[in-house]
Amino acid sequence: MSYFRNYFSCITGVLIFAFSPLYAFQSKDLLPEGSFTPGIEGPAVNKDGELYAVNFQKEGTIGKVDTNGKAEVYLSLPEGSIGNGIRFDIDQHMFIADYVNHRVYRVEKDTKIPVVWAEASAMNQPNDLAVSDAGFIYLSDPNWAENTGNVWMITPAGKVCLLASNMGTTNGIEVSPDGKFLYVNESVQRRVWKYDILEDGAIDNKRLFFSFKDFGLDGMRCDAKGNLYIARYDKGTVVMISPKGEQVKEITLKGKKPSNLAFGGVDGRDGYVTMADRGCIEVIRIPHPGSYYTKVH
Predict the structure, then answer these.
(1) What is the mean pLDDT of residues 261-273?
(2) Considering the entire predicted model, what is its pTM?
(3) Burial (0-12, 13-18, 19+ Cβ within 10 Å), 213
């Protein structure tokens, strides 16, 4: 029996996972170790519950895990391109950040053809991305050699705009469920910043949201209640931060290098965590469904 079917095999099982602290944050493997390369990143779940991540079996691919737990190569990017972040918009189009060629690909719903949606030679290496309900794409752009970074925006028409520069190593990025705020973290500096999102998609009023004393930061996602989940690279945890900027919970994983996470499953409360050191995906149960999940169901 597949992981998904066994996980929700009976009503009592669902109730146990929903209310028992013992099971709420217990990590399990979705796929065997080594299914993906160490470059595994960018998990994203579409409306149909299918999970996608970059670099399945080899670099430059997008892997797909269906609702029965079967994994396969979904598509290959053009020669020389390697994906990092993946997101779906409300209309189920897939967007992929290509950190090698300074571009973002768009894959229309029900197709497997990546088309260049936006690119800019001034980018360092597009890393992670977030998509607002209005169709604005926010892109983190770290310069690892100099420990600096930028934040870019791509408009619904495909225009590229620089929003913030001379930051720390920008990495994880996320839009709040109500679309009012943008969160951006800096991996090396271990800080999370919060911005107001303006009507035209631009950002303003930068302030410190949370900071850590040790270990790195990677991908981030919000649940429907506005809690922010952050992958703690090298620490092997996912930390849950409330909308008020207070740490609520730290979830211990099997591996030490979580690179990103996404929410899915039959109720949106499965947290899929990509593990760079293990080349696989771990699954945790969370208290609330993911923000994106609630918008498409």
Answers:
(1) 97
(2) 0.90
(3) exposed
